[in-house]
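The methods section describes the discrete structure representation at length, but only in general terms. What matters is that the chain and its backbone geometry are given together, residue for residue. Nothing conveys this as quickly as seeing an actual entry. For illustration, here is how one protein appears when written out as sequence plus structure tokens:
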Amino acid sequence: ALSAELAVARHAVFLCLIALALVSSVSRGNIINSQPSSATHPGVSVEKMVESTMSTAKRTSAKVEATANKRPRTEATLLHSPVDSDATSSGDEHASPKTVEKKVWGKAYFAHEAINEAGSHRKGEIAFAKPLRLVVAVGGNALQRRGEKLSMENQLKAAMEAAPTLRMLAQQHQVVLTHGNGPQVGALALERKTATFDCLGAESQGQIGLIFAQALGTVGMPAAPIVTQVRVDSSDPAFSNPAKYVGPIYTQDEAEALAAKNGWVVKADGAHYRRVVPSPQPLEILQLEAVRALLDAECGAPPMSLMPIACGGGGVPVRYDETGALRGVEAVIDKDNCGALLANELDADVFIILTDGGGIWENFGKPNAREMCEVTPEYLLSSKTGKEFPGSMGPKIQAAINFVQRATRSEVYAAIGDLRDTPRILPNAAGTLIKKHVEGGVKWRIPADGVAAA
């Protein structure tokens, strides 16, 4: 409609120019010898016709400008993943205009019919009227494929693989990027044995933030890494039971030798062993308002012109001491747990955890293995898959559960999938969606079709 109104305005202006040329010619001489046609426009002079035409042009231009000014940026038709049919946009009748403006970015208007006709969107995708707010968590391991050397070159290569997809998401949605730092902070700890983990965490935020900023900048998506501090409780039980994996993988013999030499605690991570450190629960993100400010600014409106990167490596763990001073804590917060808190605090629609191993599987690695397509928190918590999932996948599943259970809106969901499958996760063609409502509690994926089946 806006394009049509602009065309009308241009046409009116063109007619004005012609009329003005005619008037100018008449006033200068005898180029036009005949009088204005009184048969067609009795009593109407050329000057009157010009004035009338110009008034029409002004009115049309004013209407176009007013329409453009009041048209919200969020009306673009976008592609998102399937969601619950009872999804609604919850509002607050007593919210101030400023509050309502902020809230609209966190609400999605959901459609219910897939577009499957010829020439339409890819199977499984659904058109929505408003963009989503996404918090996307990329694991530190996703920047270092298993067996590859932890080098800046390899990490930048992995980030470059993800950058075009992240940029594509930011063209359609609001995206906040967070990332892990397990391999990176562990390597820094090997290099600088006297440094505390709060300082190493801040260093890893700068290192990985730089990697993503360069990769995203290369594809035309500027990014703003934020050194983020996260408050924890110094009496958290995690300090007596280290469980956060950091550093490279080792054989059992290598891990036990290093533990004896350096006083480490090591645990099995799949078929390998890694160092573990305390991982307390995140309680408060101290730079949350900085992230909100970027999202609420013009640069945060889709298509975004600046992507925030926050809570890298779970954030720098800090606490307030007896004097009220802010102090670092010797620990590493789980990035997925902190990412879930970030997503809840920002009222995100989707919390996406990207890994180097796909979604949630039953009997992973066995002939009868199958991947969950959609699943509820209750199903995961009642099964071995959710309660006792081995290695580093367990915290990811628990973080997804936490986000969904804490969310106040029924349509929000979490997603776990491989970094290389990112474009197919929102359309529900890859990975696993954790939702409040799934018929039967779980749906399993049919590999041949890439769609869900009960």
